[in-house]
Specification:
Elements lengths: L1 H12 L3 H14 L4 H13 L3 H14 L4 H13 L3 H14 L4 H13 L3 H20 L11 H5 L4 H19 L2
Helix pairs in contact: 1-2, 2-3, 3-4, 3-5, 4-5, 5-6, 6-7, 7-8, 7-10
């Protein structure tokens, strides 16, 4: 199953959503309790702007594996887009509890606090996000030997490109919510 997951991930990274979806559905047919495959189907649905479907997939992934940090963070993103900031905050906090070394939910919480004009909290979570991103750049495999970093899979390319992507996304989001 790992080979199929890697093949689907390659399609997903290239934006080949139909091919990736087909493989994730095949995985679920073979392993109905595969939370990671449901999470990835949610990612595809979110990319395609089908937030209701994405939300259902992320909830199913968390039902199957309540410790799947990426599904909690992804569900938070759906709530954020729906302007349900309290639910989004709860999801990001859960993601942090499950994987305190992942910079992404810290960054997402920072954006919520910026939007809510809670600058002290914004700064706190933004700094933590940057700190963790820098740590991953310095030691991409040290923290989890033999495993690919979760945050890295959210980025395209090398660690440097990932950090630049996070910084650029944060800049754009801050500019959007400024005011």
């Amino acid at each position: 199953m790992d080979e199929l997951m890697m093949e689907a991930e390659k399609h997903l990274e290239r934006g080949e959503y139909e091919e990736a979806r087909h493989i994730y559905e095949q995985i679920i047919n073979d392993e109905p309790d595969n939370a990671k495959a449901y999470n990835k189907l949610g990612v595809i649905a979110a990319y395609e702007k089908n937030n209701e479907e994405a939300e259902a997939y992320f909830k199913k992934a968390l039902e199957l594996d309540p410790k799947l940090s990426s599904a909690a963070s992804n569900l938070g993103n759906i709530f954020f887009e729906k302007e349900e900031l309290e639910k989004a905050r709860e999801c990001y906090e859960k993601a942090i509890d499950l994987d305190p070394d992942n910079p992404i939910p810290y960054n997402n919480l920072a954006v919520i606090y910026k939007k809510q004009k809670e600058i002290d909290k914004f700064v706190k979570f933004y700094k933590k996000s940057v700190e963790l991103s820098n740590k991953q750049l310095r030691n991409p495999q040290k923290d989890k030997p033999g495993k690919r970093q979760r945050a890295t899979s959210s980025y395209t390319g090398t660690g440097i490109l990932g950090f630049i992507a996070v910084a650029l996304i944060l800049y754009v989001l801050i500019r959007l919510f400024k005011g």
